[in-house]
Amino acid sequence: MKSSAAVHRLRLVSAPEGLSFILLLICSVLKRTTSFDAVFPMGLIHGSLFLMYVGFLAMARQQQRWDNRKTAVLFLLSVVPTGGFFAERMLAKEERGEEAAVVTA
């Protein structure tokens, strides 16, 4: 199936969402160990990117007619600290027309 604009948008937001999650975790640790406190602004950034990811995931699911398993895998990758990078790789394969081995196995 041909990749849609929604898949491309999801791919573009997946890596920044994953990076923002890691940075939020780092800011959380720094808040408790030093006087540096950037949890609130980083939380806003991560929350916005996460909501964009979920919205784009819903649009891509509808346009591409993804099954529940593929959608669940992509959602679970968004809540794992480095999962956004794996999601980006899966979506890049989808855009190139390759089938992601993780989902079909």
Please explain how this structure is put together:
By secondary structure, the protein is mostly helical. The protein is 80% helix and 0% strand. The protein is built from five helices and no strands. The protein has helices at 5-33, 39-64, 68-78, 83-96, 101-104. Helix 1 (5-33) runs antiparallel to helix 2 (39-64) and helix 3 crosses helix 4 (83-96). It is elongated and about 50 Å long. Residues 8-92 form the DUF3817 domain. It is a multi-pass membrane protein. The chain crosses the membrane at residues 12-32, 38-59, 71-87. This is DUF3817 domain-containing protein. Keywords: Cell membrane, Membrane, Transmembrane, Transmembrane helix.
List the SSEs and their pairings.
Elements: H1 5-33, H2 39-64, H3 68-78, H4 83-96, H5 101-104
Quick recap:
This protein is an all-alpha fold and 105 residues long. The chain has helices at 5-33, 39-64, 68-78, 83-96, 101-104. It is 80% helix and 0% strand.
Stretches with pLDDT under 50, minimum 5 residues? none
| Tally of alpha and pi helices | 5
Radius of gyration: 15 Å
Order of helices and strands: HHHHH
Tell me the number of strands: 0
Q: Note the gap between the termini.
A: 18 Å
| Structural classification | mainly alpha
Q: Which percent range describes the beta-strand content?
A: under 5%
Mean pLDDT: 90
Shape: elongated
Helix % is over 70%
Main sheet? none
Please give a handful of descriptors for the protein shown:
5 helices; about 100 residues; mainly alpha
